[in-house]
Specification:
Elements (H helix, E strand, L loop, with lengths): L2 E2 L2 E2 L5 H45 L3 H11 L5 E7 L2 E9 L7 E9 L4 H5 L27
Antiparallel strand pairs: 1-2, 3-4, 4-5
């Protein structure tokens, strides 16, 4: 230890302080990385929910659009459906739990099918079929699908 008038140059404990600052910095970086990954995951879920909601609402099935969005979206997300000319716009917004000042949102647009108005009123199309026909779980796709 060197002593000069009014200045103490003792370096004991400096390694501990530097290690503490480094540890806090590493923890902050890790927390931001986890928050970023959580935000990306939420964004993907919001996009999926908005896409499904817009598609179903475009077919005239707003009830299932809301339930599908609730199932796909992150917890606490909000769905807004509105019509714009011949389009249906679905917007899903969610607040990040890890990064509280961050709001994640996604918007999807689908064209309204002509039979959608009949479906909204609960009427069947000609031939007694529901417009657009529902494809349930386990349904076999059309053999020409994907060509």
């Amino acid at each position: 230890m060197t002593v000069r008038p009014g200045i103490v140059t003792d370096e004991r404990g400096m390694a501990t302080v530097e290690a503490a600052i480094a540890l806090v910095s590493v923890l902050l970086v890790v927390a931001l990385c986890v928050g970023g990954l959580a935000a990306v995951t939420m964004q993907v879920r919001c996009v999926d929910a908005a896409r499904e909601a817009a598609r179903l609402a475009g077919r005239g099935d707003r009830t299932n659009a809301q339930s599908a969005a609730a199932r796909l979206a992150p917890a606490g997300a909000r769905l807004e459906l509105h019509d714009q000319d011949d389009l249906v716009v679905a917007t899903v917004r969610a607040n990040s739990a890890v990064l509280p000042m961050l709001t994640i949102s996604a918007e999807s647009v689908a064209a309204r099918e002509p039979e959608a108005a009949d479906f909204d009123r609960g009427e069947a199309a000609e031939g007694g079929e529901v417009p657009g026909g529902r494809v349930g779980a386990g349904a076999t796709p059309d053999p020409g699908w994907g060509r």
